[in-house]
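Comment thread on ticket #2218

A.B. wrote:
> Attaching the input chain for the structure job we discussed in standup.
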Amino acid sequence: MLELFDKHKVHVTWASVGSLFAKDQQEWHELKPASEPAYENNIYSAYRYVRENGLDPRYKWAHFAPEMIEKILSYPGQELGTHTFSHYYCLEKLHGEDAFGADLRSVQRAASKFNTTTVSLVFPRNQFNPVHLKVCYDNGIKTIRSNPEDWFWSPVSDKGGNLIRKIFRTGDAYFPMASKRTSFPLSSLKPLTGEPLQVPASRFLRPWHPRYKFANKLVLNRLMGEMKTAAIKKECYHLWWHPENFGDYPDENMENLNQILNFYTECRQSHNMTSWNMGEYASYFENRNSN
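C.D. wrote:
> Ran it. Output below, let me know if you need it in another format.
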């Protein structure tokens, strides 16, 4: 992916959880916050899982990847963002005090290992509320990914995701189910005092699967049609996915990504489309306001 992004001059934010910064379990313990989230449903706690199950050394590669963090930082335009230290679920019920601030302080402590700070955040399951935005800002976060405006993309707790909402979210990948375009004018982004800039998601790149060959084509056609509309209208288009989404069928998924990036290059050449990572959005508004 890094090589493809570099080839096509595509800037990307890599939202990484805290353990990837650590070289092993001992260092992870040293980096993690003293204050942990006390979820009413313990299934959400990474810390509880580790205490009860440990981290099997055979799967060290699945938990700790400082060499991957270094590799991301070595490519131009690739931004090291955060997905919180512990995959923090902001809208799940807690016993006692919210430990979100402690989580983000651990994020910055982990990033300092690589002589950097993280300024962009993607909330796990896109769960957040205005209180979390202030905590983000107070801990150095300048940009977050927010949700599209349609009701079925609004942030909810895990149990708040009912079947109708899931049907609309899935269907929207193939057919227009939203009330507005997925792209948006840069001028529509409004920096607010004391909060990070919110950059809405446009489209989740659904992974390729052999059972849905026709649907796979629909996904690509819809996505590239939206991208073309954004290029023609000089608007922003925010595509996202999890790298592990490519894990089951890596060749087919990488081919899909290659098609998307080739199409982006066409849009760049014909409509002067430009690629930014999330942090570059914040930099744009900071520079504009200082001039």
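A.B. wrote:
> Thanks. Noting for the ticket: The chain has a mean pLDDT of 89.
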